[in-house]
Please model this.
Amino acid sequence: MFLFVTTMLLINVTPGPDMLYVIARSAGQGRTAGIVSALGIGAGCFFHIFAVALGLAEFLRAVPVAYQALRYLGAGYLVYLGARILLSRPRADAPAAVQPASLRQIFIQGAINNILNTKVAMFFLAFLPQFIDPRGSPFRQTVSLGLLFDASGTTVNLIVAIAAGAAGSLLPAKFCYVTGAIFVALGLRLGFQKA
Model:
């Protein structure tokens, strides 16, 4: 268990697309938006935990076309989110600030961002079975370890959201365009990198 916890903590503090999403949301729209995005990502992680426990991730690994389709769908979704932010520039007669997304939208976007990240599914498929005791229930152990991993990752993202939210209040109001650019860049990176 010590090896699992150590590895889990190291992985969760390493910046990746989910953490960058939380940073962008926090800095662009404030601490509360960052916290909600972190909780959305944590909720999205439930999908991967149960997918691995029920064998869906194994299917994605066995059927490369399904994996690629899901990967491109996730990349496209990030580009879509970023483009919406970037294209929402106010008209000359509109207020200077861009309308922020609702907390409900931010939560759903965080969950979808995580669900469509095929690397999370492949990671869980490769990582969790290493710590399963064959004498016990594989399903129960996979879910338990997955939930522990998710709780750790959500905690790290909540800390990041609070820190980035505090820093974001010092940034200019137009920082939301940086947020949009980050989403587009993440989507393009996921779409063009080798599987």
